[in-house]
Amino acid sequence: MDRQEHVQKRRLLSHAFSYRSILKFEPFLQASLGKLVETFDEMSKGDQFFDALLWLNYLAFDILSGLAFGEPIGMLENVEFLSESS
Fold first, then answer.
1. What is the number of other CB atoms lying within 10 angstroms of the CB of residue 49?
2. Residue 66 domain-assigned?
3. Domain tally for the chain?
4. Number of H helices, E strands in the chain
5. Over the stretch 3-60, which tens digit does the pLDDT of each residue have?
6. 3-state secondary structure of 32
7. Bigger pLDDT: 25 vs 84
8. Residue 30 falls inside a structural domain
9. Is 6 inside a domain boundary?
10. pLDDT value at position 57?
11. Is residue 24 classed as helix, strand or coil in its secondary structure?
12. Burial letters 65-81, b for 16+ CB under 10 A, else e
């Protein structure tokens, strides 16, 4: 890659990865993880197994969509729908 082009792109994106900017994500990340823990708690009350990796993928989709678009797509919110389809 051209060095000057790299410098320009880095300058455009650097503010999004500053320490202060990343700290602003913490409440959103904690809320998303809280939803996942609540979901795990509910599902673990039953006698059935569940695929934790699948739910971690749902968490990742919600976090990434929340950071990219300002609102999660709600995969952790639709617990009834998702647990029926898995």
1. 8
2. yes
3. 1
4. 5, 0
5. 999 999 989 988 888 899 889 999 999 999 999 999 899 888 888 888 999 999 999 9
6. helix
7. 25
8. yes
9. no
10. 94
11. coil
12. ebeeeeebeebbeebee
Residue 34's identity, in one-letter code, is G
- The reported pLDDT for the residue numbered 8 is 92
pTM comes to 0.72
Among the listed residues 61, 40, 59, the one whose alpha carbon sits nearest the alpha carbon of residue 50? 40
Q: How far apart are CA 19 and CA 36, in angstroms?
A: 25
Sorted by sequence, the CB contacts under 8 Å of residue 67 that are 6+ apart come out as 25, 28
User: What single letter denotes the amino acid at residue 8?
Assistant: Q
**Could you give the CA distance from residue 29 to residue 34 in angstroms, rounded to a whole number?**
8
Domain that holds residue 61: 19-85
